[in-house]
Batch of 2 targets.
Target 1
Amino acid sequence: MSGRSPYPRVSPCAHCDRPVLRDNDDRWIHADLSYVCRDRWGGLTATTAAPVQPRQRL
Ligand SMILES: [Zn+2]
């Protein structure tokens, strides 16, 4: 262990609520390794992975 957390930093996606994390290129990607969001039926949506901003929680 060299200061690496056993769990990656994960945030819920702002669009589809699935967990997102950063890939090696520092882009946000879903935990299922898809950049594009999917709805609950598995269909692609027009949005891509983005972490929800904690400040938006009112
Ligand atoms: Zn998403």
Target 2
Amino acid sequence: MHVLSAILLLLMSLGAAAKVVLIDPGHGGEECGAVGHLEPKKKGPVFEKDLSLRLATKVKDYLGKSTTAYLTRSLDRAVSLQERADLADIVKADLFLSIHFNSSTNPASHGFEIYYLDNSSNVAANKVERAENLNLKGEELIVNQILVDLVVQQTVTHSKQLARAVHDSVRPTIASHKVTDRGVKSGLFYVLALSKRPGLLIEAGFVSNRNELQKMNQERYLDDLARSISAGVLQFIKTQK
Ligand SMILES: [Zn+2]
């Protein structure tokens, strides 16, 4: 082999070591996710699918500067959980970040929380899990119980570390915007299990809380949030080298 091509191959393999992150804006198309209202009757509804795409796109832009970052959707269109997970194989993702916004029947509920996949989840997480697992069919759920156990076994250590790194990075940002920190939790999210990679599901705030929705709907807040989420992911990647 020619020396130059050997060097080129080496450089290419070094480049390939850079992490690939797949960012998944929750919902899309007919599936709007949670729906919030800024002001009754004055302004139209704000959909989770739109907020998640806005935040995810910003995260991709920040991460794309030092890693290879992709989105599971860049448009307002429906993508099944399985299709999102399949994309992780197609782009050979190392990490999977699913971006969502929360909702509650209690309009006072508020705050930012981070989930990683674990099957020993608590009751409080069940509501969030139900909302985010919606577009998965019954038979898939049964088959995937086995998959979940396997994936948890293989990913939980890294997912926890990733969650801690992102949480550490996000904490001062949300505090500066007076958004409550609901911490790191475990949950049973099929999109994380199906992706078979270390990953997180971020619930970036409650669209059902008008005060919080007002903040989340601002570019500056989404931008600050995206920057700190990305910084946390990069911090995690650094510790893995
Ligand atoms: Zn969602």
